[in-house]
Amino acid sequence: MAESPRLRLGSIAPDFEAQTTKGTIKFHEWLEVARRHADFQKRGVKVIGLSANGLESHEKWIADINDFDIADADRKISHLYDMLDAVDITNVDAKGQPFTVRTVFVIDPKKIIRLTVSYPAQVGRSFDEILRVVDSLQLGDKHKVTTPVNWKNGEDQANTLFPGYVKHLPYLRTTTAPA
Predict the structure, then answer these.
(1) Belongs to which family (predicted)?
(2) Residue ranges per domain, the chain?
(3) How does strand 166-169 pair with strand 172-174?
(4) What pTM value is reported for the model?
(5) Where are the strands (E) in 33-120, listed by range?
(6) Is domain 17-130 given the CATH code 3.40.250.10 in the classification?
(7) CA atoms 147, 153, 154, 160: torsion sign
(8) pLDDT for 131-154, tens place per residue?
(9) Do the beta carbons of residue 121 and residue 86 sit within 8 Å?
């Protein structure tokens, strides 16, 4: 395969055509929503999954998974999005079975990559963390603010974590070091 493009935060997400559990799609035209539909829908976010297995294996999982999955048995999309493990670019186990791809992208409505998170094959993704990131990105885009680690929408963490903090500038606060 040709070398995959260097995708970075701020890159335009590459378009592709793929077979899915709901038919053929072109990624940039895709408009379907998945598991945790209500959580993502209230944020105006769509979810899509990619499996490093063939479409036929998705049919076996259909009762267990409710998300929208793209078949990528030939790894063209995984390669395009640079999602394959560098240690074993073929991304298969000792028996030749493909590992799952656990990379998450948050791509905004302008098709700009805003987040990438790559999990090891044996680690599941945290949809709570993905929703937290989406909330933070949307808040920052709207109000030009940043959020701290473990921020949750609606919480005043400055008062909770640092009671009595001193606000020097809108972006600069200090607190007494704990004993």
Answers:
(1) Belongs to the peroxiredoxin family. AhpC/Prx1 subfamily.
(2) 17-130
(3) antiparallel
(4) 0.61
(5) 49-51, 69-71, 103-107, 113-118
(6) no
(7) negative
(8) 999 999 998 898 887 787 788 887
(9) no
